[in-house]
Specification:
Elements (H helix, E strand, L loop, with lengths): L5 H4 L31 E3 L5 H14 L2 E5 L5 H16 L2 H7 L9 E4 L14 E6 L17 H27 L15 E7 L11 E4 L5 E6 L6 E5 L2 E4 L7 E5 L1 H6 L9 E3 L7 E8 L6 E2 L3 H4 L10 E2 H11 L4 H4 L2
Parallel strand pairs: 1-2
Antiparallel strand pairs: 2-10, 3-4, 4-5, 5-12, 6-11, 7-10, 7-12, 8-9, 8-11, 13-14
Length: 335
Amino acid sequence: MDHMLLSNWFHLHSSVPSSYVQPPESRPGMVVVASGKTIPVVDLGEQDRAETMRHILRASEEYGFFQVINHGISKMLMEDTLNIFKEFHTMPAEEKISESSNDPNGSCRLYTSREINNKDCIQFWRDTLRHCCPPSGEFMEFWPQKPARYREVVEKYTQELRTLGLKILELLCEGLGLDPEYCSGGLSESPLLLAHHYPPCPEPSLTLGAPKHRDPNLVTILLQEKDINALQVFKDGEWIAVEPIPYAFVVNIGLLLQIISNGRLIGAEHRVVTNSGTSRTTVAYFIRPTNEKIIEPAMPLTSLGARPIYKSITLEEFLRIFMSKGPDIEPELLF
């Protein structure tokens, strides 16, 4: 596998291999990037809970994306976490592979381009480490032990991200008229951590770090580097750059929460572009249900005559369809 890791060979090429070249209609620059537009910023430190709830709900309905500041996670923990994953992705290939290959069921693994890879498909300019991080602590024995303090830092980080994620979900559920704890329990008990590494690309106009997609979860909380602009959100036929705010988190609504809200919240489409000058590392915390949990429009949202838009589906079945249909999944989910 070591020869497949992008970080192992990207510097040996002065041009992008043909398998990484996007079709013309998907390349950066083929759709206008909006000038001066930004996604909303929500201050979680505001004293007025009702006002905070309205801001989050409006951002989730109109954009499906927002950034949060004054969220309660320390700057030191955010820096430590980002540095741990930067260090991991710069380790020798054999070490990275060894450290991420201990789980016989594959819950912790390292891969290039995409989770289910097909050499005949167009590739994406990234390496990814993924592993489960449930609140029970299960699977931690399979996490990497290198770099030093990996498990200590990442355990602390994922615990605090869980608290933040549940706070955001409570505000969203309350704003929708649901019990604030509607998304607690089985709907959020199987979180996943994805640490993406995007090396410099010799021809960024031809590649993507991640394609136009929506996330297969309830909510994503993203830690990104504060001086590299790469994440873009698609809205009204334009791409909006998500300008990094130092020590803020980017939050986006996933398809599962779009289903639960019966289409009221937007599982927004987004992508990642590359650059030729510097590598970029991000840490994404996916809030997800357990595999057997049924995902369906919340009954209080459909009990007063509103027709359910989406079918009931387990996470396991949803992911099976998602992996085969990709961005074309939504018609499969509709009644």
